[in-house]
Write a structure and sequence with these properties.
elongated; 52% helix; 3 helices; mainly alpha; MYOD Basic-Helix-Loop-Helix Domain, subunit B
């Protein structure tokens, strides 16, 4: 007598199973981890934040903005002290260009 083995009944497998990286939850977790790493890098660049200090991401951004403003002020002061034509000098960033004359006005308003 011949005994035939029954194939286990399971859900039909799809012809193209999705790779584990296509899992939406893993994608979100990866983005969150990446964001945490980048905030950690930013936190390390800002000298006013202690390395051991626990601060929110918003505080990191606000301190980074303050630090950038301080650096702009220092740059402006150095250019003025060296007798450069600060009205013609332009600091160019990725998305905008700021004339130092505009920075001077901004500094006067904040003082």
């Amino acid at each position: 007598m011949v005994v035939m083995k029954k194939k286990p009944t399971s859900a039909p497998s799809s012809p193209n199973p999705s790779p584990p990286s296509a899992d939406p939850l893993r994608g979100v977790q990866h983005k969150q981890k990446e964001t945490e790493v980048e905030f950690g890098r930013l936190k390390n660049l800002v000298p006013t934040i202690s390395k051991k200090q626990s601060v929110s991401q918003l505080d990191v951004i606000l301190e980074a903005i303050r630090y950038i403003d301080q650096l702009q002020d220092q740059l402006f002061d150095r250019l003025e002290a060296n007798g450069n034509n600060v009205n013609a000098f332009v600091v160019q960033g990725k998305e905008n260009a700021v004339k130092l004359q505009d920075l001077r006005r901004k500094r006067r308003r904040s003082e």
